[in-house]
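Work Package 4 report. The design task specified in the project plan requires that, given a folded chain encoded as C-alpha cells, an amino acid be chosen for each position. We show below one input record used in the internal validation round.
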C-alpha cells in the first residue's frame, strides 16, 4: 500500500527502523493542505487549506508496517487516517483528531524532520513557514 509521510517519517533511517518493509518511492506535494505542529507532543499535523501545499514522501509499506505505524502514531486516539488518490492508487496518511493551537516542536524531533526533508529532497521553505505561523 502507499503511505504519505510529512513529518518525522520522512527520515529514511527512522522510517526503515519503524517499518522494515518500507520503500521510498518519490517526493510528493499534497495540495490544499498545510503543515502544522500541535498537541502536547508538539507533533507534525496537516490541515485543510486552499491553495496550500504539504511536501512529503510517498512510501510503499506492507500491512505489518501499517500496524507498526498505527501504534507509533497512536491511531485512532491521536491521529485518524485519511486517504487520497495517486494515479488511481489509494494513499494513506495520518491527520490529528484534535486541532489544538500551534506548539513549536522539540529540537530533537525537528532535526529528525529536517533530515527527512534532505532524504526526500524537499523544499525546506514549507517547513520554515510552518514553524513561523502568523499569530
Amino acid at each position: 500500500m502507499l503511505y504519505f509521510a510529512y513529518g518525522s517519517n520522512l527520515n529514511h533511517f527512522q522510517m526503515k527502523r519503524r517499518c522494515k518493509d518500507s520503500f521510498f518511492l518519490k517526493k510528493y506535494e499534497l495540495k490544499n493542505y498545510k503543515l502544522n505542529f500541535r498537541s502536547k507532543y508538539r507533533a507534525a499535523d496537516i490541515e485543510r487549506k486552499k491553495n496550500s501545499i504539504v511536501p512529503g514522501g510517498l512510501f510503499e509499506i506492507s500491512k505489518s508496517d501499517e500496524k507498526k505505524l498505527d501504534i507509533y502514531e497512536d491511531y485512532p486516539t491521536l491521529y485518524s487516517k485519511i486517504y487520497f488518490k495517486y494515479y488511481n492508487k489509494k494513499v494513506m496518511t495520518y491527520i490529528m483528531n484534535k486541532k489544538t493551537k500551534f506548539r513549536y516542536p522539540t529540537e530533537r524531533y525537528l532535526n529528525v524532520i529536517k533530515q527527512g526533508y534532505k532524504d526526500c529532497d524537499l523544499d525546506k521553505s514549507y517547513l520554515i513557514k510552518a514553524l513561523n505561523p502568523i499569530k
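DSSP finds four helices and five strands in the chain. Validation will be extended to a larger panel in the next phase.
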